[in-house]
């Protein structure tokens, strides 16, 4: 069988490649003239866009940060919705979700470097498990408002999602296993290791 004629393979490739588009980097470069990979934390996500661009133009920073957050979330959702329309089973949808997070975190457009995976992760999880994701997003927002530290707030939201997913879905519909959730969580946690180190050193910046 020709792999490129297989619907699932095409969906997997689309998820990984689309999720790899570094919207934060492109937006900051185009509209603010800054290379966020060489400034702030060096991350391509919304938080670093906001932090770096704020130094030049606070209003523009908020706009670009919000757009980056939206685009990073939606790029994982798009392929899942297409797969749903095509009638793909739950196992395929979860594989797409995992590949979207991997694609963002290890972008083929950035020599397999990338973001932290939070926006893309919560985007795909919002489609796959809406109620646990909404609970996690609320926890994330409350933590962010209180702590003013994006990294720890994101990890708290992630923990909230994992707990909520087990409470609401003891067995994940269609696949029974929580394995895809743990893979996504592990990737996000792995990408946050530098932030965790800075937290222990009390060097992690606030937003």
From TrEMBL:
Which pathway does it take part in?
Lipid metabolism; phospholipid metabolism
| Keywords of this entry | Acyltransferase, Cell membrane, Lipid biosynthesis, Lipid metabolism, Membrane, Phospholipid biosynthesis, Phospholipid metabolism, Transferase, Transmembrane, Transmembrane helix
Output one GO MF annotation: glycerol-3-phosphate O-acyltransferase activity
Cite the EC number.
2.3.1.275
Transmembrane region(s):
9-28, 64-85, 92-112, 118-142, 149-169, 175-193
Is the Cell membrane keyword given for this protein?
yes
**What is the uppermost EC class here?**
transferase
Quote the subcellular location field of this record: Cell membrane
What top-level branch of life does the organism fall under? Bacteria
Instruction: Report the principal subcellular site.
Output: membrane
Q: How does it sit in the membrane?
A: Multi-pass membrane protein
Family affiliation = Belongs to the PlsY family.
Functional description taken from the UniProt entry: Catalyzes the transfer of an acyl group from acyl-phosphate (acyl-PO(4)) to glycerol-3-phosphate (G3P) to form lysophosphatidic acid (LPA). This enzyme utilizes acyl-phosphate as fatty acyl donor, but not acyl-CoA or acyl-ACP.
Q: Which HAMAP family match?
A: PlsY
Quote the protein name from its UniProt record. Glycerol-3-phosphate acyltransferase
Originating organism? Sulfurovum zhangzhouensis
